[in-house]
Design goal:
Chain A is about 10% helix and about 55% strand. By secondary structure, the first copy, chain A, is mostly beta strands.
């Protein structure tokens, strides 16, 4: 994929629900995870998205949060994908966390290095990648 | 809070307005600040959000901008919280700014180090943390 | 502009379409580029936005992705601005890319340094800055 978004999931549109301005699109990744995207109705039309359309879901790493186990929280964020930390790259301010999902895909999250330390995130931990439906971009072959 | 979002505000839902796909939720923090969140109607249902519900508002530091005094701008961003810069962490590209609100909470913004320099942001300055309603996640005890 | 958002485009509102909660605003930059913004209906009212209103569109660098040529993708992201890479600032984790548009404006994208390497982005390349309509904030003189 020739785009800087660190997270690209190939898969299929499962359902489209149009609203007044925005539409809600259910998407299933090749690895079997469900992703919800909020995009504009106009994009649904431009991309001719419908149940069954092959597409790619893109999520920028900076839109992804990391939730650690035992938080006991229910989140409004529609996308919560659990996996195992397989990579940690630390800078002075920023850090990147790679989270491998059971289906084999790796989700990347750009978070602050201070969060990595405060949460004690380490390779091998089970964590959840969290991102809002409004952070998801859908793409189709042009 | 066991999530990497640098900004977590405990508080109470003040009002919920459902739309076609998205809902607008007014939230009041324990410190007395008002936050507006745009989440999906389905999340309102899943979390059983209504006026009076105790909840937590989460905002990723990368979703927060810093507005300095004297800009004379009115912004479409629904969340503009003024406070005092209490922390500045600089990296080669990224920087983190901590802004203490009058109610005692600290808002963290991840911005570029170049913006810190261009705006001349320093500890002690009065600035405004700005974030869109669509950048807010709401959470309830699960 | 006294705000940390790295991307500020002066221009004029071209059209406003109200929805149930959110509105879609078409905006034309001084450089002649079209930008679509999703903001709340309430912000449209607060800022008195209508066709012809002079305004500024703000986009945080962290909301911008970089698409390189030959991807053959159609994206749901409503804002895709092509230009030439004029600046690359690299940190250990983060990088900032400056993309000059034909109209003279420069769009800044904060992406990971790993993406810069993987995509082989270099000064002089023709690339496309991609951001969602929901990442755009509109501002008017207060």
């Amino acid at each position: 994929m020739k785009i800087s978004a660190r997270n690209t999931f190939s898969g299929t549109v499962a359902a489209v629900r149009l609203g007044a301005v925005n539409a809600e699109v259910d998407f299933t990744t090749a690895g079997g995870d469900n992703i919800v995207a909020i995009i504009t109705n106009e994009s649904v039309q431009n991309l001719a998205l419908a149940a069954g359309t092959a597409a790619v879901a893109l999520v920028k790493a900076s839109s992804v949060m990391v939730l650690v186990e035992g938080s006991g929280l229910k989140l409004s964020a529609r996308n919560c994908l659990s996996g195992s930390v397989v990579k940690l790259a630390a800078g002075p301010v920023s850090a990147e966390v790679g989270i491998a999902l059971p289906g084999g895909e790796v989700v990347h999250a750009s978070i602050t290095q201070e969060s990595v330390k405060e949460l004690g995130i380490a390779v091998g931990d089970t964590v959840t990648a969290v991102f809002k439906a409004s952070s998801v971009i859908l793409a189709v072959a042009g």
